[in-house]
């Protein structure tokens, strides 16, 4: 696996990384999987129109948008936006344009609403 550095990520080097399944329309590349008390750090890649259902943050979540636009009930976040979601907050997430985000979770989130087919 290539070294994951800030320069690699912000220069588009994430395009060379391997992503695996996460949720329907969203893939993941783990930089640091959850391990004990260590937070999880990953890249999430949303296809156009992909979403993650309403969920609760059991710990702090921070996001840096690397490409495209990520949205939630509070607004739209374009490339370069830094988002902080405090423990206990809830929202759903989607991307009308498709996007790639760098995300760090202190703890896994709890899904509150599953998508219905």
UniProtKB/TrEMBL annotation:
One of its GO terms (molecular function) is hydrolase activity. It comes from the Bacteria. This is Allophanate hydrolase. The keyword Hydrolase applies. Transmembrane segments: none annotated. Residues 15-103 form the ChrR-like cupin domain. Keywords: Hydrolase. It comes from Rhizobium freirei PRF 81. The keyword Hydrolase applies. Pfam families: Cupin_7 (PF12973). SUPFAM superfamilies: RmlC-like cupins.
